[in-house]
Amino acid sequence: GYSQETLKTFDVGLCTKKNKPMSGRVVVPIYDEDYNYVGCIGRAISPNMQPKWLHSRGFRKSSYLYGLNIAKESIMNTHTAVLVEGQGDVWRLHEAGILNSVGIFGASLSEDQLILLEKSGALNLVILTDTDEAGQKAADQITKRGGRRFNYYRPEISKKDVGEMTTQEIEEDIVNKLKGVL
Fold this sequence. Notes:
By secondary structure, the chain is of the alpha/beta class. It contains 6 helices and 8 strands; from the N terminus they run H-E-E-E-E-H-E-H-E-H-E-H-E-H. The strands form 2 sheets. A 4-stranded antiparallel β-sheet has the order 1-2-3-4, with no helix packed on it. The radius of gyration is 16 Å and the shape is globular.
């Protein structure tokens, strides 16, 4: 459900080589803020493939923010970072023109990720974790861990997950509510 342009921007592809760790998975490369490759994540494309998400050997998700390499300039210009849980959420926001979004690889923000946000020039954090219980706990943890370093915004959204929203819903639920912040 994502545009080819978006998948190309984020270097997303499919591993079709047999007997490889990511074989039969959509492969999402991860880069640091300076575009250095640091690992990848593979997403199962069939429902019976386990685990659903597979991280490359040695990749430490708590040390990176997904998409920071692409969002860095926009974060610096707006002084705002939009935090989401996963890669698909970043892609959907990117398609909607929100270029300052980064993924935290799940439902908690690590100290290393917090330092990356501080270095990025963000003064404002828009928290768009999922609307389920885990997402609410993540939002609470982010504001607690970040303390007084940032201004926090958590708009209500109409779907459980930003990645499930249309660009029109993002415009109505997020952009219109956060004019002047984004």
